[in-house]
Amino acid sequence: MPHRDWRIRIHEYFGVSTQILWDTVQGNLPSLVPSLESVIKLEAS
What we know:
The protein is mainly alpha-helical. It has helices spanning about 20-25, 30-45, and strands at about 10, 15. Helix content is about 60%, strand content about 10%. The mean pLDDT is about 80.
């Protein structure tokens, strides 16, 4: 599995930064899809 930088910060002191959250969804989540699909297939079998 490729290395992921889990230190991505999405929280501000009083809430969630919607801009950082959206940037994460758009920029980081798509690269996780293949790994997630593999896990789902393994769990389903």
